[in-house]
Amino acid sequence: MKIAVLGTGIVGRTLAGRLVEVGHSVTLGSRSATNEAAVEWAAGAGPLAKAATFFDAAADGEVVINATPGAVSLEVLAAASTMNLGGKVLIDVANPLDHSAGFPPSLSISNTDSLAETIQRAFPTARVVKALNTMRADVMVAPERLAGGDHDAFLAGDDPEAKEVVARLLAEFGWRAEHIKDLGPLDAARGMEMWLPLWLRIFLTQGNNNAFNIKVVTG
Amino acid sequence: MKIAVLGTGIVGRTLAGRLVEVGHSVTLGSRSATNEAAVEWAAGAGPLAKAATFFDAAADGEVVINATPGAVSLEVLAAASTMNLGGKVLIDVANPLDHSAGFPPSLSISNTDSLAETIQRAFPTARVVKALNTMRADVMVAPERLAGGDHDAFLAGDDPEAKEVVARLLAEFGWRAEHIKDLGPLDAARGMEMWLPLWLRIFLTQGNNNAFNIKVVTG
After folding, report:
1. Residues in A 137-166 with any Cβ partner in B closer than 8 A
2. pLDDT tens digit string along A147-174?
3. Architecture category of domain B2-206 in CATH
4. How distant is the Cα of B204 from the closest Cα of chain A, in angstroms?
5. Interface predicted TM-score (ipTM)
6. Residue ranges of domains in chain A
7. Cα distance between residue A61 and residue A40, in whole Å
8. What share of chain B is helix, strand, coil (3-state, %, to 5)?
């Protein structure tokens, strides 16, 4: 598949790299076609990797991934353009973190709304799926490195077929079917984003900058 | 220890019953000393169990547990009275669920504040510890019934000794030390309460009304 990854931070580059590794054609999108991080990534990631503007990346992609900070996601997606998002699966892995009052951040959108729903309202023809925002990038793309993959990823979205596309990508990353938990419609993204404050506190007390994730434990 | 459990719902009665079982003297507090649920519970729970008003329960308790719905917690604690809470460990297991817009509920306090912090501000001499609000009552008191106890409970509070008291009670319930995770100061309760929306979505998709909890999975 041709996949556009918007955002050149650690999340964007990690997802882009792994998508290339499993055989997809990936364009890493950024504000400028000569963005240093994107160009450097593309140069090192082989023939399936390209760098381009948000607009050109989204135009070329069959699936688009929002891997930008939540605070700029709407602006970035506007630059990618409604016409390039219409009918496409738009995977939102961002979190609406508000760093304005220091660390740990609060959320700029929460409780009765979510970033994912805000994006869906702004781009109604996109098929938004919330995924992977609940963990660090290294865990997203290689679940088996943590406890042999025995932990969970969540999905939320209003389009069942779009969620299947995302579930297949997660499977390519190594997520086993029983660990991909579909939480239902897109408003379930509220819970997925509101998990971040607890994630941050666990992160702060874990020590050693260790990767971690959660597993839903049942009887 | 003499423990006051405020609230006669399933959480209050379950905690009270288990506390009696492990040897504590428990007073189940409610609005009236003749509250049917409380009197019935006390009659069935043996000589260590009593029913009383919020005020009398709190006056008698060395530790007080807030097991009321978040929407009425402040009012109940006011009835229990500042003078009966001063210097005591106050375990807040409540969640600030707002059911006014239907199901699933949102939170009435969140993001930059929490119910636990609100309670601490209202009763500054109490030693508030947030605990156990992240799971169902049957899991709180018998962790070993779920995956042999291999899942986690969180604590938050500004008083380290108070947290030790709570950790000891959790140990009596069966929580192993490595599964009692101290997340730091009381403002970490924000994350513990903001977990509820995700908990609710997992609950809705789990099916069969199964008990569940989360385990933090590390490398």
Report:
1. 145-147, 150-151, 154, 156
2. 999 999 999 999 999 999 999 999 999 9
3. 3-Layer(aba) Sandwich (3.40)
4. 8
5. 0.96
6. 2-206
7. 20
8. 45, 20, 35
